[in-house]
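TASK: fixed-backbone design
INPUT:
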């Protein structure tokens, strides 16, 4: 694959070193962005688990100190008494049967769906639609809750969910280039702390196998695992 001049120049900044300390990597993120827009910063973690086994799945949430820099679009499946407070908290839509009907007709322009427990039986009719897009509310992700306003506020401020894919990898956005190295480092460390805390009981081998960060279209920057720790 042929790379552009900006990417090649950014890649050259990484030459001569296989892995970087966290502080070095965060500084490099601000120097290796290849886009004119404010690029997102991504973290990619390869874990030593087998997601096929229930006791080795990794799924949890973390509230990043400085948010992700992304304006998250949230909808809420709630009773009529909670509709106004959910929209006031930042949900782009809130409702019950009316919102379910919209989704049945094709509305999927949102990032996260929150629901109160009593709404889950009604959502069953659109579970397949939401599930295929990874948008189904889930207690493990904290999106099925009796306190939807509180969760919407947390999500708007920067709470993110992480979960292993089929190959035991985690992929998340943890900020923007404009945050600067210090804020990116604080977000990164909080993220890694949460991943460590979510280590499943069934994980027998080395838990963290590989960690890298990158800007949305920039080169990957490998982290020194000895510094990050198990």
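OUTPUT:
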């Amino acid at each position: 694959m042929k790379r552009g001049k900006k990417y090649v120049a950014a890649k050259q900044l990484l030459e001569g070193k296989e892995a970087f300390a966290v502080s070095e990597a965060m500084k490099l993120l601000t120097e290796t962005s290849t886009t004119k827009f404010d690029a997102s910063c991504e973290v990619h973690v390869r874990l030593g688990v087998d997601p096929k086994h229930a006791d080795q799945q990794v799924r949890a949430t973390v509230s990043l100190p400085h948010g992700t820099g992304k304006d998250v679009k949230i909808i809420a499946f709630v009773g009529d008494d909670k509709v106004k407070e959910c929209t006031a908290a930042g949900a782009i839509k809130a409702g019950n049967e009316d919102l379910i009907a919209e989704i049945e007709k094709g509305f999927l322009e949102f990032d996260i769906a929150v629901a109160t427990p009593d709404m889950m039986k009604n959502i069953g009719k659109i579970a397949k639609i939401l599930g295929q897009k990874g948008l189904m509310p889930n207690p493990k992700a904290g999106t099925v809750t009796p306190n939807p306003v509180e969760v919407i506020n947390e999500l708007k401020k920067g709470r993110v969910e992480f979960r292993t894919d089929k190959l035991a990898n985690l992929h998340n956005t943890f900020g923007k280039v404009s945050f600067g190295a210090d804020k990116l480092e604080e977000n990164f460390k909080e993220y890694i702390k949460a991943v460590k805390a979510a280590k499943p009981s069934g994980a027998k081998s080395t838990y963290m196998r590989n960690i890298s960060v990158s800007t949305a279209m920039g080169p990957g920057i490998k982290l020194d695992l000895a510094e990050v720790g198990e």
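COMMENT: The chain has a mean pLDDT of 92.
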